[in-house]
Model the fold of this input.
Amino acid sequence: MDLLKKNEKYIDQLIDMSLKEDIGAGDVTTDIIIPPAAILKGAFKAKAEGVICGLPLIKKVFAKIDKSVQISFKKKDGAKVKNGDIIALITGPARAILMGERLALNLLQRLSGIATSANSFQSKVTPYGVTILDTRKTTPMLRILEKYAVKTGGASNHRMGLYDMVLIKDNHIDFINIEKAVMECRRFIPKGMKIEVEVHSLEFLEKAIKASPDVIMLDNMSLDMIDKAFLRLKETKCDAKVEISGGVNIDTIEEIAKRKPDYISLGAITHSAQALDISLTLHK
Done:
């Protein structure tokens, strides 16, 4: 819950903007058809297996429209569900519920899909002592929520943005050699901030080892190259953490995990996650 609490003001603004985007000047259909005093009750139900995420957000959505809407949660964020499980019950003014249902479902389905994806990948590598990391391949403006979903699913967060960790890529090295880049970064970054270097070849690995970063990322390497890289890291007694990235999917991840890197990072858990099928069934 830390990410949500730390960013509560931002999330409130995000929900306000999302409601404005959807409702605009008003829900013309509901305002014409539904009597002001009408009451609805209903249930959020899972229609597939997965991990639930986003329940505090749907409560915020309806509270912003009408504080008299009542929601009773039957599951918590992080809970695993199967088809037919009731996630939450809702009761309140029909107009408020109908105006908020789409945003509530969008958030719940999207974040639950990411949590489910993160859980699937992490479950594959846990026996090997490997940690799954997300990336910055997130939906613009939704990064905090999507990274919260990754953690809810049992995986971990890489850097939140460009501001909280040094990640030296090949494009940076076009301007400065790797050892000098690491040295310069250490001069200016706050104490405790990590430095990671992205490596694409065994030749560049040698330079990265000499630079002594905190993390070395083996990016888009074949399994054979990864094995050779690990051998070289062992020979040089390099104490940097090792991260593997690039070309990782649900079919290849276990074979990569068998090499026992510290981390495997992949954008798929956020940018390619399939929304979890969840319905909201309403009646008078």
Q: What stands out?
A: Residues 2-119+273-283 form a domain with the Aldehyde Oxidoreductase; domain 3 fold (CATH 3.90.1170.20). The radius of gyration is 23 Å. Residues 94-125 form the longest helix (32 residues).
